[in-house]
Amino acid sequence: MGKAVKKEPIVSTLEQYQSQFRSAVQAATAFEKHESQGQKLLYIALERIFAFGEEIRGDMKAFEEFLAASGESLNKVTKANPYNALVGMAFSSTRSKSWCSERANVLLYASETAGDTPLVDWLENGGGVSGRYAEAVQHFARPAAGKAASLRSSRLASITSRLQQARVVTEALPGVTLANGFHRSLLFSEGGQTFLVHVRDEDDQKIIEKYLLEVAGNATPNNHPLADRQLYPLFRAIDLILGTCIPSHKGTGLIAIWNEVEDNGALTKLRFLSSAHSFTNATVTLKAALPELDGQGYLILDSEDAEMFRERFADDHSWRVEAGDEGIVIVDDAKSQTRLKLRPIANYADAKLRQGKKLGRRTRHFVATCEGMKASAKNLETAANLSKLRNKDRLTDVVKPKRFKWLYPSQPEDLLEEPPRKVTLEVGVADVAAYSMLSYPFLSRAEMVEPIDPQMELSFVDIAAFLKVASAYAEDLNGYIADSDVRDAAFCIDHIFGDGDRFEYVSPMVLGVSMARTKVCEDFTAAPVMPQAPATSRPRDYSLIEANRRKKTNFPAIPSSSGRVFGAFITSFMPDDAELKAARKFNFEWQLEWWRRMTDIPVHVIASNWADEEVAASTELDRLSDHGGSITRVGPRILIENRIDCLNQLYASDFDWGIIMDDDAVLMQAENHNSSYRLFAEMAANGISAYDGVDLFAPIYGRKAPFNDELNGPGNPYADNHVFKKSTDLKGSMIVVRNFVKEGKAPLLPDPNFRCHGEDTYLTLKAVSMGYSPMTSWNMVLEELAGDSTFATTDDDRTEKMREGHERLVSEFGHLGLRMKPNSHALDKREFEKQSLGGKAKQVSVPKPR
């Protein structure tokens, strides 16, 4: 007897998604009907949209069909953030675009940061939608936006200062009293006379700023009114050192000044020295060396002479450095000439001088914003005036605070369970009400994994002086908290100005009422100054090098074609040193020719610090446009800023992949080097979907590990397959990155404030923290063209720079298990990889196309 079996209806993928999304729409409708009941229904609706969005965004084809069935399209905006479409589709059309956009950005932010936390809990713990939206704005802010904000702040500060000093009348208007600040006014003219007829005191501050910016115009304000003066870099260095170190100083204070030779040429360094045991200290490095100091060793400028130079520099006289019979002097051109002599360090042999020492672990990196420093300094000035007013009838001295303390945005008992991430400052003297009632908001992006030791407080005198002096130079400064013999020992700044000069500042923490300072100094020893390389050093034989390169290179008759699936993005920095410049140009020309003749991949170059005549003289740069490439000219910048530009150009393009390179990277292409340059055409033939699970990859780096036996051994899988192996150790000379934006994913972009060694490791770990998989391709081998390193001068220097960079990485990714190896400068990535990559494929293998 036959058995009847009911046939299950066939449900398409689209119908499944449509059915699933109905629950999100129902939840959104429930919220809109019962909105008065509070936010819980909204959170439930957002949670269902979020669950749906996280699932469907993994299948872009299905997502596109789903949108089309609902009358929507998968455009660039929706690719970048799928929730832009889903939120609008779930809620009624009465909701404003800004309301929907805010929630869409919060959901995308949750996708990157919420992890396993349920969305409702994540929202409630973060201050609701508004609180998480504020974080999302900061999270997704681009470097360009930060620069625009900084420029806007500088323009406002510039025009405000000019208008305050250029009042129309010198006497106050009778009968008109208003709050401090600018106000809009109306003027009426009649019979040749003009009257102030109305003053509005209720204008929004944004309106006031709008008018001030119109007055300021579009000009970029000078960083400092003396910036165009000769010896301005020397003035800034002395101003920063004296202004930040002297106010709290006790003992003999001096400034050591000397020249050093590094890979990029000579530098001038200035450092504060003292006979005190532990003190606030600073070092400034001038990128453009003072040639008069060459071969002079360590010289000393005493604090009185330095203060005289600092005070008189603004006078209408030019200053210069002279080398003559009396030694090295700093002199002006006034009729009554000022001559400030630099004395040999030997004159101070009995002074028992000390200097800032190399500190330990760096944590809690932050940015001290120019706008915040100015506002904080202004509030300190206001508080001081209020204290004087309150104390005007008393005979005792006005009480001033001694310490700043750290204030956390959580209750003290919460610190044990979940350490706060953001830090602000508050004056830690309870009986000085005038100070404690004001805020000092100069720290930005101060993210922490653990709270600062509550015993460690900041010297009020130090921070007040720092805010006043540093804010005058119109740049946001990078900083961190450092360990010494104790944890959280010092508040530090390590910032490179726009012109390349470097400011390093250390303020030791103070311990409670005793005001004892942490130990951040050591005895000063004048290390031998490295002599400059003799001018007669043997030059490189470029003709011989080129002949050898051409002999071992076999260019194909027709370049390998990847059909515009790949684009190459090279950052090229031109050093100032003539010998390094020649080597850089020579290697770069060969690199561009290699890529042009091996492949048809368009090459886009970020040319940093290249002069017009250098660009015009380059044959290969002129040929870039012939195959779809381009050149972007920028000034002298650090590598990570140029890398960010390369990545942004990739994300703005239609390429599936971007080859991000330094200006010395090619590939080995002998028979035993596997696919080499042909890999890109082979991958293009297979299609990008064949490489799911590979988000960024780099070639084998033969200098670090041998590869030939495995790559060419009997029975190896590499001859017939593209093999990618999981790795967090990618060489930054060449990294291939997916166009995440094109796929509707969050872009991989490093923080431009990461200015330590290890930017390639940082990019890789950042990718892992975002859920992406880094790999090594076992089908190509990196070849770096011979050149001089600009990384470090000695092995000790190399180790210390690696330690600094790795400690910075631990401060950012420590919550994911990244650690330093005990008693080592190296990273311990085992727990980090276990937490973040444990569920990822260890290897991806794709057959080569036939």
What's the CATH C level of the domain at 547-785? Alpha Beta
Number of strands: 33
Shape: globular
Q: Structural class of the secondary structure composition?
A: alpha+beta
Return Rg in Å.
31 Å
Number of helices: 25
Explain this structure.
By secondary structure, the protein is α+β, with helices and mostly antiparallel strands. Among the domains are: 13-140, no CATH class; 362-517, no CATH class; 547-785, Alpha-Beta Complex (Spore Coat Polysaccharide Biosynthesis Protein SpsA, Chain A), CATH 3.90.550.60. Helices cover 35% and strands 21% of the residues. It is built from 25 helices and 33 strands. The strands form six sheets. Strands 7-8-9-6-3-4-5-18-17-16-11-14 form a twelve-stranded antiparallel beta sheet, with helices on both faces. Strands 22, 23, 24, 25, 26, 27, 28, 29, 30 and 33 form a ten-stranded mixed beta sheet that branches. Mean pLDDT is 82; it is low at 1-9, 410-423, 530-537 and 788-793.
Keywords:
single chain; 850 residues; alpha+beta; twelve-stranded antiparallel sheet; disordered N terminus
Element layout with pairings:
Blueprint: H1 13-33, H2 40-56, H3 60-69, H4 76-80, H5 83-90, H6 97-113, H7 119-125, H8 128-140, H9 143-164, E1 185-190, E2 193-199, H10 205-216, H11 232-245, E3 253-262, E4 265-274, E5 281-286, E6 299-302, H12 303-312, E7 319-324, E8 327-332, E9 339-344, E10 354-356, E11 362-368, H13 370-390, E12 403-407, E13 424-427, H14 433-436, E14 443-444, E15 456-459, H15 460-470, E16 477-482, E17 490-496, E18 502-508, E19 510-511, E20 516-517, E21 521-523, H16 542-552, E22 566-573, H17 578-598, E23 603-608, H18 612-617, H19 619-623, E24 630-634, H20 639-651, E25 657-662, E26 665-667, H21 679-686, E27 696-700, H22 708-712, E28 721-726, E29 734-738, H23 759-769, E30 774-784, H24 795-813, E31 819-820, E32 827-828, H25 830-837, E33 843-847
Parallel strand pairs: 22-23, 22-25, 23-24, 27-30
Antiparallel strand pairs: 1-2, 3-4, 3-6, 4-5, 5-18, 6-9, 7-8, 8-9, 10-21, 11-14, 11-16, 12-13, 12-15, 15-19, 16-17, 17-18, 19-20, 25-29, 26-30, 27-29, 28-30, 28-33, 31-32
Helix pairs in contact: 1-2, 1-3, 2-5, 5-6, 6-8, 7-8, 9-10, 11-12, 11-15, 13-15
